[in-house]
Please model this.
Amino acid sequence: MSRGSSWVEGTHDSAFGLDNLPYGLFSTVDAAPRLGARIGDHVLDLRAAADAGMLPPECAANSLNPLMAAGRERWSEVRSAIQSMLSDTSRQTRVEPMLAPLTAAELRLAFEVGDWVDFYASEQHAANVGKMFRPDAPPLLPNWRHMPVGYHGRSGTVVVSGTPIKRPAGQRHGDDGPVFGPSERLDIELELGFVVGPGTSLGEPVPIAHAGGHLFGVCVVNDWSARDIQAWEYQPLGPFLGKSFATSVSAWVTPLAALEPFRTEQPLQDPEPLPYLRSPGPWGFDIDLEIALTTAAMREAGSAPHLVATTNFRDMYWTADQQLAHLTANGASLRTGDLLGSGTVSGSGRRSYGSFLELSWNGTDPVPLPGGEVRTFLEDGDEVILTGRARRDGHLVGLGEVKGRIVA
Amino acid sequence: MSRGSSWVEGTHDSAFGLDNLPYGLFSTVDAAPRLGARIGDHVLDLRAAADAGMLPPECAANSLNPLMAAGRERWSEVRSAIQSMLSDTSRQTRVEPMLAPLTAAELRLAFEVGDWVDFYASEQHAANVGKMFRPDAPPLLPNWRHMPVGYHGRSGTVVVSGTPIKRPAGQRHGDDGPVFGPSERLDIELELGFVVGPGTSLGEPVPIAHAGGHLFGVCVVNDWSARDIQAWEYQPLGPFLGKSFATSVSAWVTPLAALEPFRTEQPLQDPEPLPYLRSPGPWGFDIDLEIALTTAAMREAGSAPHLVATTNFRDMYWTADQQLAHLTANGASLRTGDLLGSGTVSGSGRRSYGSFLELSWNGTDPVPLPGGEVRTFLEDGDEVILTGRARRDGHLVGLGEVKGRIVA
Model:
């Protein structure tokens, strides 16, 4: 589908034009939360459109779950209907009143999260962590190239972009036994999250060729991590309180349909995965990702956010269809709203890592910032902004940003 | 509160008398799922009672969550009202039609599970696992005596007692690299689960002295585990597919109020925990627990379930109030329906272990069964029944059983 043009002003060269149309949940001073689709700097009120008979009833819900549950055909139908509403000038008079300026919209968490599963799919990230924490062993553990390693996180603490992040307290290792207090190694993880559409029944694995039918869309994820809490607690059952205090997701969920032009081959997998993990089609996505930071001092000085790292999603070793097939291979059921995190997206160069743990190489090499500041881990007042943007063959699609400021 | 007597037949010496009154969700051929309280071999229809004005509106819901969310005062009020309905003979004529025989009730999952967190609180269990898997190291890892170690499980695959358990497939270690197929080391874990009542806001830890106000009741939990899948996958992020295929819980949730007579000192903790984990009151519970097994051959021979192990909950090192305080110490919020698993309950004698991993000592010492059969791990057709029962000073309270049969 090529990028048509919309009658909505300022959308011609926008990363939020007709080819994108991400979904979100928004409220305004005069109206309760309802679904919206972003077009340029406006939000189309999907409930109003559904009430006017222009969209099916799922669009009148107050979460994205009913639409996500409805499956691919419905997703296409709704997307086409929205594209037509926003491009057909003969409908402009009727549709225009359904637009709210983004500045007037308060964005909410767009979907009810079922289970939140976080993977570990970047080879560079897994190897970086291995080199730092197991310097005398091979950087990757023996299972890593055979399966998408993952774990369950706390779905009740998934929050929308903009939610302030209170610095977590917890136990950490001390010289004379463990101590309790605010984390001293507060970090981010730059990830993409794939959101599950139709659920499945217990005992019915999803064959990898069908995985796409269960994946609705993508959000940007900041998997906040307290490295000191995590290091002391994680043996033998994995990360727990070092991660569970908050996970921020972008308000906008970009449908996979909008990302089709950016689909690309994933990296070669060697050894070849077991049959249940052999992906039939390309599941790499060529999406640029960025980490930007504003400190309290920078805000005071009026400085713009500082670009700390840039990377691309296409090099992720394990792909979303493989993760979904693995997740269900044991018969585990899916629920609409399950969120599959890619794991930290780290590229091969030092300024392309997706966490401060890696960017500062475990705190040994501070990241320089404008105005002479440096960072190893996050300080109170720091605001982190993660964004994504895909550009290819004339197509341009922005992913929603995920932003969070650390408070004491 | 001493055990009064109920006009319901056969409840005088019952483990499900007036002092117990666990809650569940049931349906009958002629009526949709509704809340019930078990009395002897009957279920009191709480929706009917609420509709008749005898109970508050939370009791008319089709899950336990609204009542659990309402808090302690409401819990007491409802419990007293039910006790009065079932003991006051002047109300018998009005209340009797609200009773359904258990045999006519199909039991459902009583509550919507928020997050499912599984701990690892039995010292004997943690030490047994350590001895088997790290024979040359101290049995307990350095963090174990300092915090209730735990991890998040898959809440979407928590199922009610009676749900058939399909043997999970997965990757496991093989001599020439990993292989994929049905688990060959399918196991159980005998646990109690504490269910969260009122939720909390993000960033607000629950002080340990307030933990009790957030804990509504207790169910019996079978945390099914595929040991071969788990062993290959769990480094470094913890258990994942080895546990996520199903977790069975009893249909009946016993309110903590019913377990007060069995409250007892927990074991001495040495070293003394950090202040945020210092429990102000006794949080041990003197509850006998049992594992029974019926194999396909035993069923054919008409044999009764065979008692495989018996243990008691009172020796658990970490207690539910400590687990709840730890879980929220980093600011993680609670949701009504969050489920806190105790971890496998293992006693000090060989026949008091809470898993086949331990009972068969990692498969090296098979468990003898009637008719000459033996078991290391579970075979298809095996049915496992976990039950609990507390008896003390004339009080008798049964916990709901959790039952599950393995299917190929």
